[in-house]
Amino acid sequence: MQVWIGVYLPHLSREVFQPNWSSTNEAASGMGLVVLDHERVVALDQAAHEAGVRMGMRKGGVLTLAPDARIHDKDELKEQQAVADVATALMQFSPQVAIAEEQTVLVDVSASLRLFGGVRALRRVIRSSLAAFGFTVRTSVAPTGQSAWLMARYRGGLRLSIRSLMRQLPRLPALLVLEARR
User: Fold this and answer.
1) pLDDT at residue 60 is higher than 70
2) Which of 74, 94, 112 is the last residue of a domain?
3) What value, to the nearest 5°, has the Cα angle with vertex 7 and ends 93 and 112?
4) In this structure, are 125 and 156 located in the same domain?
5) What is the CATH classification number for the domain harbouring 123?
6) pLDDT confidence of residue 134
7) What is the pLDDT of residue 26?
8) Which of 53, 85, 90, 138 has its CA 20 to 30 A from that of 132?
């Protein structure tokens, strides 16, 4: 039986600048953090959201609503390095690790399940291990790598059999698949 775990980093653009365990003075004082891509907001923290900043907003609007917010341009290199670091950390659970599209890492844990006490225990250990990095993670378990990727990108979850996976697939949005977005 094949078992894949998908690990998706949904807030990576923000968390490379401010890890979720960070207690910097700026985060504590409520100044906020905003990440821009081509002068538009692609990520923000709770303090910036409370100040009125919204996804897709232009830089000028951010400066109007939250003039003291820390503003960063999206850093693809930092994000790629963070995903590579996560993939390296996941190698402690299996040597079969693959970096997939859109901030997702896939791990074939079929041979490691007994060693770590089963799939639920392994998922728990993976989540706590990656929490030390300061990243929010969404995990999924599925019988194929592609299905683990899809489920991790959507809401996560646990589908160990093809039958349960086939019941779940029609509920997933079609726009999760990269080719469907074009």
Assistant:
1) yes
2) 74
3) 20
4) yes
5) 3.30.70.270
6) 86
7) 45
8) 53
